[in-house]
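Researcher: Good morning. I'm working through a list of sequences from a screen, and I'd like to move beyond sequence-only analysis. For each chain I'm collecting a predicted structure so we can compare shapes side by side. This is the next one on the list. No need for commentary yet; just the structure.
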Amino acid sequence: MRFEIRALKASEGVIQLAVDAADEATALEQARAQGLAVLSARRRHSLFGGFGDPLRARFPLLLFSQELVALLQAGLSLPETMETMAEKENRPDTRKVLAVVRNRLFEGRSLSQALEELPQVFPPLYIATVRASERTGDLPEALKRYISYQERLDTVRKKAVSASIYPAVLLCVGALVTLFLLGYVVPRFSAIYSETGRSLPFLSRMLLQWGELINKHGVVVVAALAVAIALGITFRTKVRAAASAVAMRVPALGERVLIYHLARFYRTAGMLLRGGTPIVPALTMVSGLLPAEMRERLAGAIQRIRDGVSVSVAMTEAHLTTPVAIRMLRVGENSGEMPEMMERIAVFHDEELARWVDWFTKLFEPLLMTVIGLVIGAIVVLMYLPIFELAGSIQ
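Model: Good morning. Structure tokens for this chain:
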């Protein structure tokens, strides 16, 4: 959810910004972590007509950042860079975004202030990265860090997606074949057996009854599946959160889900720290990357850090570390290289997760094929079982 925050900033007076957060309390906490005195907050659904959530998916943020870095390093000023990018752009939606940013820059606003007016396009992490770079004057370097960060995230995401495609196809094909057998083939056998007047085995009778039920109410079954898919797409965020919560409770799978969330969390926090964001605001800003349960534990850890407890101790007490992460956090505290250590934590766990996904995929795919084969085979055997018994009695 997005919230529109009106706040008082010491150097600029009253400002407005948009914050992505799970609820209003989290949005207020993120604003206060940036040193703002919050005046009001309200939920925000859209900025203006054509801009909405789909635009973020369509806007080429990574390409935008790469072109911005190239033009800035070529010696163009920031307003000239945005004007050049807007003039060459052919896609109407993207050109509209670039025109808004360009106009705000010509009005004298900073880049982060211009980006804040387009929360549907630029995520809070991107805006925070730009804002931190404006204090240090190294916008190209900050954007390079964000590009590298996003490319690593995309690599992990692509591995997970590619590993899940084949099992998903197997499940869909298996489900379609099963529905075809139950809804079309089994009722034909049921009609044949009803004419013989012979008593059938219990399991065969159950199978035939299920087939008749699906055959008679096929429209209802298809409609129910369509509604379930539509609800899943509409509430995909809640579905993912629920699936993550269930997975966290599965012994073997829960540990890997935890590692995935922690890797993303530490990578993002490390990037913000490297850009000059203090530790408490950085942890607060990335809290939205964690599930609700872990987010609550992180809030307690942030309070402990405010009280003077070291980061490694606070994160350990909140159960937001692994044995490797604990040691690297301690090394970062002792050496003063906390951003580098957090990024190394993420890299280590990404590699560990990639190995596990590869192993799990190799094991899961044959198991899934075996289960689907057993289900379809059981349906076929139960359909033909009365015929086998009849042939045996004739002999």
